[in-house]
What we know:
Blueprint: H1 2-7, E1 14-15, E2 18-19, H2 32-35, E3 40-43, E4 46-49, E5 52-53, H3 64-81, E6 89-92, H4 94-108, E7 112-116, H5 119-122, H6 128-140, E8 143-146, H7 149-158, E9 165-167, H8 182-189, E10 194-199, H9 208-216, E11 221-226, H10 232-242, E12 248-252, H11 259-265, E13 268-271, H12 280-287, E14 292-295, H13 298-303, E15 310-313, H14 318-330, H15 335-343, H16 348-365
Parallel strand pairs: 1-4, 2-5, 6-7, 7-8, 8-9, 10-11, 10-13, 11-12, 13-14, 14-15
Antiparallel strand pairs: 3-4
Helix pairs in contact: 3-4, 4-6, 8-11, 9-10, 9-14, 12-15
Amino acid sequence: xxxxxxxxxxxxxxxxxxxxxxxxxxxxxxxxxxxxxxxxxxxxxxxxxxxxxxxxxxxxxxxxxxxxxxxxxxxxxxxxxxxxxxxxxxxxxxxxxxxxxxxxxxxxxxxxxxxxxxxxxxxxxxxxxxxxxxxxxxxxxxxxxxxxxxxxxxxxxxxxxxxxxxxxxxxxxxxxxxxxxxxxxxxxxxxxxxxxxxxxxxxxxxxxxxxxxxxxxxxxxxxxxxxxxxxxxxxxxxxxxxxxxxxxxxxxxxxxxxxxxxxxxxxxxxxxxxxxxxxxxxxxxxxxxxxxxxxxxxxxxxxxxxxxxxxxxxxxxxxxxxxxxxxxxxxxxxxxxxxxxxxxxxxxxxxxxxxxxxxxxxxxxx
Length: 366
């Protein structure tokens, strides 16, 4: 969005609803964080509103689009009643956000553009109930954007209108993601030899266990895990079983400003995820000079197309990942080549394409 504002004449305000929760404090777990979110704030000069909507954990998935719609309807009506002019609703993630946004568009007579980002298609979109609602929302919306070709293909296989879907990949901020403090960070980590990095949530579909199994087969590679999540204890137990404690480092969750140095310090980024849309982490790593080993899914297939980018792996055999990691770290491409390759994936052309879709949606709606 920041690049859209920078590269086009679009004006943006953001409505980012959060689940309602009445209590604060660690004793209430993760949901207590929502109670701390302000009702409104300004980020990077953009006004952001955070209305609350009801979420019923585990059993309320089918109701969430309706709850989200009701909350957003009140907030949007207040803006319109105050005289604010809104030409278009831009919704990201098809369910529940896109479904709710499409209904908002119908209620207020505003065109809607939605963006599919990954598991909203490859996981939620495969469920019969949500899929039906997603297809209905797509039919109502002016257009749908997908971040990679495989998401577009899958939506079409569900029955969506191919003529109303465009693939626009994500870009990378090359000013932020660049090689910095490589040796300083490696010294801080107290690692030598080759470093394989994973960065992301420690959840089942990310398959960090495959990476650890692969590293166990490579005597001179250290595994560095940046992230947190419910599988942390299981992954630490796996490290103990594999007897690679002396060459595994768990960093915990890193702040955005720390990610360039982490990418820079690694020799390869490993992403064995079962499902992804356009995994930003791949391009961010390359922009820092570090090639990748990724499962051959979704956006990775569009992105990892040459040696300087890295290697794709089919399936979940740890030996195949070990072979791919070994290939990358044993005969590395010049890190400058990897950075130059990533540099071709800038944001400006994406922003201009977004603007074109937005303008057409408004023009055709009116």
